[in-house]
Amino acid sequence: MSATFEISVYSCSMACRQTAFSLRNVDGRSPKLRLSHPRVQISSESLKALHLIRETISFRLELIGMLNLDTHILIKAFEGNLTLHERDVLTADPEWSISAIVLWEIATLHRLGRLAYGLDHEPLAAALDQVHIWPITRQLCVNLRRLDFQSDPADEIIAATSLTHNIPLLTRDSRIRRSKIVKLL
Fold first, then answer.
1. In whole angstroms, what is the distance from residue 23 CA to residue 9 CA?
2. Could you give the CA distance from residue 67 to residue 14 in angstroms, rounded to a whole number?
3. Average pLDDT, integer, range 34-56
4. Under 8 Å CB-to-CB from 121, ≥6 apart: which residues?
5. What is the residue-wise DSSP string for the chain?
6. CA-based diameter of the chain, in Å?
7. Which pLDDT belongs to residue 94?
8. First CA to last CA across the chain, in angstroms?
9. List of domains in the chain
């Protein structure tokens, strides 16, 4: 069983000096725990520190079995046009995820006429509802510097998603497949 939890720190304006905390399961299922402290008074020093860490801090429990799919693999899986290896990998591990940039790529491919269906296509929308979507975060963008290959920005973000969340990537992209630091299947 895999689980990813996200702890978010929200701070109000300096005038109210209040903060709230929440813990939620980010795999799309209902929250496991939510703590809210809307009236906690904090010092101005703490408030300054909170402003520096307003970004969400993700704590990952061991991600057993989560896969990251690139756009091409996701589309081929939806269309049923996978290689035997890809089908075996996806069948063996039903915990699929994608970077948020994959949604943008699907919309763009559809708009350009290179994909017959878009995000509003009901069967695709239903399939996407079953996939965890990783947000593009500041830490992910920092991890772009760690990549040992150059490609288009979307592919780099997809690879950095795997680095950031320590999950293997299933891709056909030859540039990404030459990487020595991105976990690949």
1. 9
2. 41
3. 48
4. none
5. ---EEEEEEEE--TTT--EEEEEEETTSS--SB----TT----HHHHHHHHHT-SPEEEE----SEEEE-HHHHHHHHHT---HHHHHHHHH--EEEEEHHHHHHHHHHHHTTSSS--TT-HHHHHHHTTSEEE---HHHHHHGGG-SS---HHHHHHHHHHHHHT--EE---HHHHT-SSS-B-
6. 60
7. 81
8. 20
9. 4-60 (no CATH), 66-177 (3.40.50.1010)
d(CA 14, CA 28): 32
Token pair listed for 87: 């089908």
The Cα–Cα gap between 73 and 70 comes to 6
Q: What are phi and psi of 103, to 5 degrees?
A: -65, -45
Which residue has tokens 């899986």?
Answer: 77
Share of the chain above pLDDT 70, in %: 65
pLDDT(34) > 80: no
| Range with the poorest average pLDDT among 42-46, 100-104, 130-134, 142-146 | 42-46
pLDDT at position 27: 46
**pTM of model > 0.70:** no
Hey, which residues does 98 pair with through a beta bridge?
133
Q: Are 175 and 149 in contact (CB under 8 A)?
A: yes
pLDDT in the model for residue 49: 57
